[in-house]
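In response to reviewer comment 3 from the previous cycle, which asked for concrete evidence that the modeling workflow produces usable outputs, we include below a single protein chain processed end to end. The sequence was submitted unchanged, and the resulting structure tokens are shown without manual editing.
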Amino acid sequence: MFEGKKLFVLDLDGTFYLGDRLLPGSLEFVEKVYEVGADLVFLTNNSSATKQEYRDKIEKLGVSGKYFDIYTSAEATIRFLKEHYSNKSVYLLAVPSVENLFRWSGIELDDEDPDIVVMTYDKTLNFQKIERFCHFVRHGALYIASHPDINCPTEHGPIPDVGSFIALVKASTGRDPDHVIGKPNTAILEMLIKDYDVQKDEVVMIGDRLYTDIECGLRTGVDTILVLSGETTMDMVPEDPPFYVFSGLKEIVESMK
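The workflow returned the following structure tokens.
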């Protein structure tokens, strides 16, 4: 199934690492993809860090920067805003580094009268931010979320993610996001396919979540692999699934030999 593949798109949390620990087979997988001459892109919904912060973390875990690139739902959200709402102001929920990324990318941030509200994975979230965000949503601002993940897997167990915050806003305002940018939205994967100038049959999507990673790969029409190293357990996998199932990256590496 890996013959002729030119682009491997890999999730991070629960697929490649948990917290600050590489999962078994992660380094070997990266080296194998490089050995066969394919490109590796980490595609993460987690918008609580910038591309450079992710790169620094992965390199500190022992992975050479020559092996990979990174694309985040925060970057995709910025790209979406610039392509469709370039002259609109934004009230943003984000950690400081991601807020700076939006600002440096030319997005006009507005805490008083924004046209759009954007929710990323803000680990500095507090009541004042949520109160203001809900106020703008309730009064008709366009509402965008970077991704729909309910929980983020860590070495200590799952923690609330953007999907949980979306549920909070829905309970308060009655509104769902007008746009959700990250996986399973096919646009985020289509962007990579276009950027790397490959065909869909040359792409493999690998992740640990059924409703984001796997759904994104299936909707886009690429070969898709579920790993059982993160959120999904075997009892959650449907009978005769339209995707491949491996225990983790270590087993995938063994199948590529």
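Residues 93 and 125 are 7 Å apart (CA to CA). We consider this sufficient to address the reviewer's concern, and the full set will be provided in the supplementary archive.
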